[in-house]
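Format notes (please read before filing issues)

Several people have asked whether sequences and structure tokens are stored in separate files. They are not. Every record keeps both together, in the order shown below: the sequence lines, then the token lines. Line labels are part of the format and must not be stripped during preprocessing.
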Amino acid sequence: MKNIKIENVTLLELKEIAGIIAENIDGYRFVFLNGDLGVGKTTFVRFFCENFGINPEDVSSPTFAIVNIYEGIRLIYHVDIYRLTDVNELFYILEDQIENEEGIFLIEWANLFPEYFSDERVEIELKHKEGNKRDLIIRIFGENAEIIDKLRRWNNAKKFESKI
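Then the structure lines:
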């Protein structure tokens, strides 16, 4: 596992981070999004989907639907498992999509059932900060560490620019 912590992330920076992850997602089908209510999980999904030609205005929280499907350059499954009570419900809802082996799954509250999903994943933990900022801890489980390398370069450039 490789990881990076990025602090005091604004909405504009969250959009840039979502773009970096989307551009380098090859090899991963699962992106876990964990954090408190209102921290920016669905906003991240909007930014991520935009990179695949999906109108961000079409992206909404699947809290009650459980799964929203967006069709663009890639098929995106936006899943919110907050309301589920056991892994069998999750299996029943996602069985066909996961077996189909197409698309990318962005799963809010994935920490509730981590044993259900593939070991190869991108995991993003979002934490509230003062103002409209958040801290992100991004973990990569799998072979492709390019996402972390690019995020490190982006974060270092951001820190350098703030010192100028």
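For reference, the curators noted about this record: The mean pLDDT is 89. The chain has one domain: 2-163.
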